[in-house]
Amino acid sequence: MEPFFPEGIFSGGADGNQDTPRVLISPCRYIQGKDVLDHLGRYLSILPSQRPVVLMTEGGRLRIGEKIEASLKQAGIELHIEIFRGECSYEEVERVSGAVRKSGWAADSVIAAGGGKCIDAGKCIGFRLGVPAVICPTIASTDAPCSAVSVMYTPEGVGIGPEFFPNSPAMVVVDTRLIASSPVRHFIAGMGDALATFYEARTCFNNPFGRNMIGARITLAALALAELCAKTVFEDGRKAIEAVRCGEVNSSVENIIEANTLLSGMGFESGGLSIAHAMAAGFTVIPTLHRDFLHGELVGIGLIAQLILEREWDEARKIVTFLRAVGLPTTLDQLQLNIQRDAKALMEAMTAAMKEPFANTEPFEVTPESLFSALIEADRLAEEFGNR
Ligand SMILES: [Zn+2]
Predict the structure, then answer these.
(1) How many A from CA of 103 to the centre of ligand 1?
(2) pLDDT tens digits for 336-357?
(3) Buried b or exposed e, range 161-188, using 16+ CB within 10 angstroms
(4) Below-50 pLDDT ranges, the chain
(5) 297 C-alpha vs ligand 1 centroid, how far in Å?
(6) CA 79 / ligand 1 centre spacing (Å)
(7) In CA terms, which of 34, 68, 94, 334 is 20 to 30 Å from 283?
(8) 299 CA to centre of ligand 1 in angstroms
(9) Cβ atoms within 10 Å of 246's Cβ, excluding its own
């Protein structure tokens, strides 16, 4: 299987940079609502798919396996289940693809039902089997469902980098009752991730050299989606958390799930990433951060630092206020880090951050040292709020 690299396809023509086109990337269908998973079988008729492979973890199978099976059987669809062992590694992807081939099951789609890693693995397996991916997220903490890219890890869980696909998921089916019943920490972390989407897309849009995830320029549509994403999180975030804590699925919960999944997902892929995500990726070289914190929790702190780097102080304060209000970390202390004691590890994290391709989307030069100073400023700003 030849790997797919979108960058060369969309890069500029004779005039180089000037000719780089604006490109929007999106899943073919996005379906969101209470109990929509009960109708998955019916939705599959759009593809159409009659012989899906369903990928889920053992825990996922206990939680939603019966629901999915019942829905498919009702639509007269047979299925083949593969258990995902938890890591989105090339080894795991090859193991599952090999098992499907060996079984003789002539799959016509891969349904990935689970969290970010299961979804990312499902996209890889669909690509290898040459069939479309159908994504059913069970948590709202990840950008993974809508995008045509997977984040790959070693079998030990160390990040390797992205794998791109020529096609976006054929269908994303988001059951809001299911997602609202998953741990609230994931729901809140997804907001940290979603909030950054706008500020990162804006940076990429404003810089003529800024690019989105496939190396293309940013459409007005992507910037608008990203802006709506942040607006929705600010407006509905707190109400949605309260509702989820009471086991309710109201319009605020629906809005936040759409922001975390569709708006943030399309927003980052079509709008581009910047410092907030570079920093979050860099942080994962510190083992305790990689182990104990969710992606969106790290992105939130990266976002404060990005805005400080951009001298957007008012916005940085607005972000700190919101993150604190929803209980997301804003200080190094909350990450169990100390500037003096952990200076070396933090500097290594900032050096790792600069290796991310989207670390270079600012119109000015960014270095590990300037990132480090921005992080210290961000910490000082957040600490000030804490002392009020
Ligand atoms: Zn993200």
Answers:
(1) 35
(2) 999 999 999 999 999 999 999 8
(3) eebbbeebbbbbbbbbebbbebeeebbb
(4) none
(5) 10
(6) 32
(7) 94
(8) 7
(9) 9
